[in-house]
Amino acid sequence: MSTPVIAVISPGAMGAGIGARLTSHKVRVLTHIPAGRSQGSHDRAAKAGMHPVSLAQIAKEADWVFSVIPPDAALDFAKEFSAAYNSLGDEKRVGKPAFADLNAVNPSSVVRIAQLLGKEGLTLPFIDGSIIGGPPKEGYTPIIYASAEVGTEGAKVLDEFEALEKYGLKIGALRGEGAGIGAASALKMAYAGITKGITGLASTMILAAYANSPGTADALIAELSESQPALLQRFTRSIPDMIPKAYRFHGEMEEISGFVVEEGGGGSGDVHKGIAATYRRIEKSIKEDGEELKQLKDFVQRGVQVLEEKKKAT
């Protein structure tokens, strides 16, 4: 089998990391950078060895399309790609490219995307995927969980996706009972709802403590160091990692809220709507160099200091 051509949309931190991993395994990697995107997008694509081209060229040349974008843009991108594919007319290829949605969207969202790619003249193989972990780097590979339509055709495309492991990816194919389109996204929602939800909840309460008084924030750090040192240590790592990603975490929290409601959680879905609001506050504070950003950074710095002092004292 010849080496596939894979398009990765877009060259953000995760997309560029996946692109770099694939190019290091001799895969030709295409991408698309719309007009108006930052120079950073172009720089990341170039560093990863990705080739920016039009969506029509991707539809014409790629064997696979990986959609790796903020969740609130996933459906719009699928629509744009559908239009580009249909614009090929007689040049359209049967069953190519296969489309893997690897975004942090809930099951109903990914079903809508799959349905979009299965109508209006499109019959493209579809993978519901979810990435757990950070961008690939030397010595580290995140896992991409994947599920597909139940049945023979779905099993075939899932096997083909899993075969991409030979190009430096780590893939976990979901083949358990009832694991069709939506299963991989549900796993991502549950996992991120816990991990990113904890970080968002912590940030919410830290900001509330600072807003009450500096003394309250002091006491919070001291108490966490005494009674919950493992939590404080976790927050000093997870909050700095979250800050540059807050702009896309709020969309992910909205998707998780929808997932909870759809799975019978009712009003429990409001939990992650609240966390989404916190991530929006942080995003706004980053743009304005606001107090929330300064307070979170202060908490992390002081938390690290307290933990180091306790370690030296033991």
Automatic annotation (TrEMBL):
Phosphogluconate dehydrogenase NAD-binding putative C-terminal domain residues: 211-282
Pfam families named in the record: DUF1932 (PF09130)
InterPro entries named among the record's database cross-references: 6-PGluconate_DH-like_C_sf (IPR008927), 6PGD_dom2 (IPR013328), NAD(P)-bd_dom_sf (IPR036291), Pgluconate_DH_NAD-bd_C (IPR015814)
Top-rank lineage group of the source organism: Eukaryota
Protein name in the entry: 6-phosphogluconate dehydrogenase C-terminal domain-like protein
Organism for this UniProt entry: Calocera viscosa (strain TUFC12733)
